[in-house]
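can u do me a favor
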């Protein structure tokens, strides 16, 4: 619903990306016109304050192996 005013029809994926709390009401209508009871979901997209970390340990004799790291 658009802020509780009316139902909107979507035929493509709905994308949520803004960091905030979401309350979504939804329902489906099949090809025969049957309408399901409305359902709801609440979720929050939070700010990620920590960048991803990774580490690599290479075991072997220096100069004997070819190692390629890709990002």
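np, heres the sequence
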């Amino acid at each position: 619903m658009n802020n509780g005013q009316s139902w909107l029809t979507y035929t493509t994926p709905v994308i949520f990306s803004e960091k905030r709390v979401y309350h979504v009401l939804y329902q489906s209508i099949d090809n025969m016109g049957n309408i399901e009871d409305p359902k709801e979901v609440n979720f929050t997209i939070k700010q990620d304050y920590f960048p991803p970390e990774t580490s690599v340990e290479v075991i072997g004799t220096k100069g004997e192996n070819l190692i390629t790291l890709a990002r």
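The chain has a mean pLDDT of 84. hope that helps!!
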